[in-house]
Amino acid sequence: MSKTSRRNLAAYGVDRLLAGEPANRVGKELAAIIVDSGKAIELEFLIGDIAWELEQRHELAIGKITSAHGLDNKVRAELIDQLRKAIGTKEVLLEEERDESLIGGLRVETATQVWDYTIARKLSQLREMF
C-alpha cells in the first residue's frame, strides 16, 4: 500500500461498488490490502475516505445527527430530504446520537460538511462575544 494512498484505494473501492460489485467482496479486498500492507490501524480512516468519496460523487451521504433529544419520524424524514438537497446526493443515511449537554437543537456532520445549530453552540458564541 505504500505506493497507493488511502484516497486512491477508496476511489478504487467506490468505482467497483458503483460498477455493481457486491459490497462484501469489495470490503474484503480492501481490508486485505490494508492488512497486507501492515497498516491495519488505518482501516477506520479508509472507511472515512470511502464515505468522503461517495459524498463527493453525489451518490451517498452519511449524516451523523447529534441532538439533545431523540428525533421523531417526521423530523428524521425532513432532515434526510434537506441533507439530500444541500449536498446533492442521491441517498442519505442517518446515524443518530443523543447528547443532553447540547440542551436543544441539532449538530449534523457528513464526510465533507458540518452544521451546528445547537443551543450549546449559540451560548458558546455569546460567551465569546462578551
Strand order, biggest sheet? Answer: 2-1-3-4
Mean pLDDT comes to 92
Structural class: alpha+beta
Number of separate helices: 5
User: What is the string of helix and strand elements?
Assistant: HHHEHEEEH
**Are there runs of 5+ residues with pLDDT below 50, and where?**
none
Structure description:
Helices cover 52% and strands 20% of the residues. It has helices at 6-18, 23-36, 43-56, 73-87, 119-129, and strands at 60-67, 91-98, 105-109, 114-118. The longest helix has 15 residues, at 73-87. It folds into two domains: 6-56; 60-129, no CATH class. It has a four-stranded mixed beta sheet with strand order 2-1-3-4. It is elongated and about 50 Å long. The chain is of the alpha+beta class. The mean pLDDT is 92.
Can you lay out the helices and strands and say which pair or pack?
Layout (H helix, E strand, L loop, with lengths): L5 H13 L4 H14 L6 H14 L3 E8 L5 H15 L3 E8 L6 E5 L4 E5 H11 L1
Parallel strand pairs: 1-2
Antiparallel strand pairs: 1-3, 3-4
Helix pairs in contact: 1-2, 1-3
Short description:
The chain has 5 helices and 4 strands. It has helices at 6-18, 23-36, 43-56, 73-87, 119-129, and strands spanning 60-67, 91-98, 105-109, 114-118. Helix 1 runs antiparallel to helix 2 and helix 1 packs across helix 3 (43-56).
